[in-house]
Design brief:
Elements (H helix, E strand, L loop, with lengths): L5 E6 L2 E8 L2 E5 L1 E6 L10 H7 L4 E5 H6 L1 H10 L1 H5 L4 E5 L2 H7 L6 H10 L4 E2 L12 H22 L3 E6 L5 H11 L5 E4 L3 H5 L3 H11 L9 E3 L8 H6 L4 E4 L1 H7 L2 E4 L2 E4 L11 H5 L2 H4 L4 H29 L2 H8 L4 H11 L3 H4 L9 E2 L9 H15 L5 H4 L2 E5 L7 E4 L8 E3 L2 E3 L12 E2 L27 H13 L12 E5 L6 E6 L2 E6 L5 E3 L1 H10 L6 E4 L1 H8 L4 E2 L3 E4 L8 E5 L5 E7 L13 E8 L10
Helix pairs in contact: 6-7, 7-8, 10-17, 12-15, 15-16
């Protein structure tokens, strides 16, 4: 069964999405609580996990289950879902970690896969060869080769049912890439294995460096599972690097030693003297009272608390992705432990990992620390600024045009010709920036601590990119600057098409609309970027060289896109290099005719690879009669 991974929201490499399984839809990023196959060994009941915590999928060990003859027989006869008492999706692992710990397992790779088939698991995992982070290169390479051999055999045994394939290779980036490339055609879900020793020893920087180095080698259209990354302090980091699936046995293991989990770290129950948690569970049963219970009651209460904290943090991660605030959450979490701070610095040392999917803007840009000014949004702006400065200056015949400016505060439109040269650049927290670009993200929405320093007049923001930042620039130069920034230097030619009118906001005083020949051509968003109407798209299409800023729909989908229907990934013929999620694009049919303007959800290298889901949301389209979608 094709798991049909569909994206619904994203923030950089992090994705909110849906995975289709035989037992329902799983929403990502998702956390699989690990269950012991024997219900008597489970501190938190399966019913509580399903009904109290609304968990959509769980994970259990097929190897441990197989070793218990009574339970194994019941699982074969009734199915794993019946055995566990869980009607959602069930994922089974293979015993690779047990093999790593104990040196061997009492079953062959094919026997373990056949057992997973027999019990009706939704997602099976082949028995890979666990590679330690400390393994020498020869041993790590041998592990990759043997794992790929086993995976090929597992694919045949599994048939068309969902298979999660581990990617091994230790800390050797080239071996991880080799493993990923070999696994891609065989996997429905990709899983990064061999990371538990790094997590247990707080080597988070090594872990995330490895993930940064291999992320581009992992097929973007396939869900990514980080095996064993089960502490809530790491979920935001894992999602940031593109992980869609996590699993946790730690809620149970930590409870056995009476250790409490929080997104900021862990704490022994004996240290608790105050009611500081505040979660729903602890509100009914404060932790300081748990200390007075019997050992069995303590373990169960702590397990409930830990699972609650894990699931709450995963919900925070999904919420942050939807709002475009995951980097804020990661930076906040990085303050919780020096090892996380080191990991955050390591991530920032690899900005190229994120630039291919870094969106044009977010709601805001908050400077929390000096590290904030190293985020990919800043690196992307700096690189684009270097490119902008290399472009030839605006054409003289355009630069001398008169423009009609309509401000609500003025009784009649004003005509403001361009006079003199450009204003000097403005100082900003990331260096000097041309004044016509000061309203663009991240500069225009940047909030810095200096703005709130003692004695600072908030009506005159310390950040020169605040409201009214472009008042030292003529309206035409500002409009030309942001148009060129968003659509390239050739885009300025659209101003030759007729009379140009600029409309400004009454409340903010910012440019909000560009009209050409009295027809709306561009709407300027809060991030300062001009988004085209269909008329504006026609003007751009006439001046921009193909394939710049274009996505080509196949013949089957073209008529539906032309009618305003969403363009799905499977119907994309090609996409111009460099398109990033949430960027506005021009959509054409295979003959090059403009049919719509839209906002991309996928990056260029992802379009056409996802078999499910949206590639471009249509924002303006050529009028035509309604049509039924091909999907």
């Amino acid at each position: 069964m094709d798991p049909c991974f569909e994206l619904t929201d994203r923030d950089g490499l992090a994705r909110r999405g849906r995975i289709k399984t035989p037992h329902g839809i799983v929403h990502t990023p998702v956390l699989f609580p690990v269950l012991h196959p024997d219900p008597a060994r489970q501190l938190v009941t399966v019913r509580e996990i399903r009904e109290r915590f609304h968990v959509e999928a769980v994970m259990t060990s097929s190897y441990i289950l197989r070793r218990n003859e009574e339970l194994a027989q019941r699982a074969i006869e009734k199915g794993i879902h019946s055995l566990l008492g869980f009607d959602g999706a069930v994922v089974t692992d293979s015993g690779a970690f047990q093999q790593h710990v104990y040196g061997e397992v009492e079953a062959s790779p094919s026997e373990i896969l056949e057992f997973q088939n027999a019990i009706g698991t939704d997602v099976a995992t082949p028995l890979d060869l666990f590679v330690e982070p400390s393994s020498p290169r020869e041993e790590a390479e041998a592990g990759v080769v043997e794992t790929l051999r086993r995976v090929a055999e597992a694919r045949k045994i599994r048939g068309d049912r969902i298979l999660a394939v581990p990617v091994q290779g230790g800390l050797f980036a080239d071996l991880r890439r080799k493993s990923a490339e070999g696994s891609e055609p065989l996997a429905d879900i990709l899983a990064v294995g061999g990371i538990v020793p790094l997590m247990d020893s707080y080597r988070f920087a090594d872990l995330f460096r490895m993930l940064s180095e291999v992320r581009s080698s992992l097929a973007p259209e396939k869900p990514l599972h980080l095996f064993g990354l089960g502490h809530p302090m790491l979920f935001a980091f894992g999602a940031l690097l593109g992980a869609d699936i996590f699993d946790t046995a730690s809620y149970h293991k930590f409870a056995r030693r009476l250790s409490l989990q929080f997104p900021q770290g862990s704490m022994d129950l004996d240290e608790v003297r105050e009611d500081f948690c505040g979660c729903a569970l602890c509100d009914r049963n404060p932790l300081y009272r748990v200390r007075e219970m019997s050992l069995a009651e303590k373990e169960r209460a702590v397990a409930l608390h830990n699972l609650s904290q894990c699931l709450l943090e995963m919900s925070r991660v999904r919420h942050a992705i939807r709002r475009g605030e995951l980097w804020d959450l990661v930076e906040e979490r990085a303050t919780g432990h020096p090892a996380l701070q080191a990991a955050f610095r390591e991530i920032l040392d690899h900005p190229g990992t994120f630039l291919a999917t870094e969106p044009p803007s977010r709601r805001h840009f908050i400077v929390r620390s000096p590290l904030s000014l190293r985020l990919p949004a800043i690196e992307k702006f700096r690189r684009k600024l270097e490119e902008y400065r290399r472009w030839p200056p605006s054409l003289a015949e355009i630069a001398t045009l008169e423009v009609e400016v309509r401000r609500p505060s003025e009784p009649s439109p004003a005509r403001e010709p361009e006079a003199g040269g450009p204003a000097p650049p403005a100082p900003t927290p990331i260096g000097e920036v041309p004044r016509e670009l000061l309203e663009l993200y991240p500069i225009g929405s940047m909030v810095t601590p200096e703005e709130f320093a003692a004695g600072t007049d908030r009506s005159s923001p310390a950040n020169p990119a605040g409201t009214g930042a472009t008042r030292g620039v003529t309206p035409l130069r500002h409009a030309l600057g942001i148009l060129r920034w968003a659509w390239g230097p050739e885009s300025e030619q659209v101003f030759r098409s007729g009379k140009v009118t600029l409309r400004y906001s009454r409340s903010s005083g910012r440019l909000r609309e560009i009209l050409i020949n009295e027809r709306p051509a561009f709407v300027v968003g809060n991030e300062g970027i001009p988004h085209p109407t269909f008329y504006g798209g026609e003007l751009l299409h006439s001046v921009l060289p193909a394939p710049v800023h274009r996505v080509v729909a196949n013949e089957d989908a073209s008529s539906f896109v032309e009618a305003g229907r969403t363009l799905f990934s499977q119907h994309v013929l090609s996409a111009a290099p460099g398109i990033v999620p949430f960027e506005y694009v021009l959509l054409t049919d295979p003959r090059g005719r403009l049919i719509a303007v839209g906002r991309a959800l996928l990056a260029s290298h992802e379009m056409g690879r996802f078999r499910c889901g949206v590639a471009v949301e249509i924002t303006a389209h050529r009028k035509s009669s309604p049509a039924k979608s091909p999907d």
